Amino acid sequence: MISPDSTACAYRAQLLYFVADPATLEDPSQAVRYHSDGLLLVNAQGRIDACADYAELAGKLPASVPVTHLPGKLIMPGLIDTHLHFPQTDIIASPASGLLPWLETYTFPAEGRFGDSDHAREVAGVFLDELLRNGTTTALVYGSVHPQSVDAFFQESHSRNVRMIAGKVMMDRHCPDYLQDTAESGARESEDLIRRWHGKGRQLYALTPRFAPTSTPAQLAACGELARAYPDVFVQTHVAENKDEIQWVSELFPHNRSYLDVYDSVGLLRPRAIFGHSIWLDETDRARMRDTGSVAAHCPTSNLFLASGLFDFQAMRQSGVHHTLATDVGGGTSFSMLRTMNEAHKVARLGGCHLTATSMFYLATEGAARALDMQGQIGTLAPGAEADFIIVDPAATPLMARRSSQLDSLEEQLFVLAMLGDDRNISASYSAGRCVHRRAA
Ligand code: GUN
Ligand code: ZN
Question: What is the pTM of this model?
Answer without folding.
Answer: 0.98
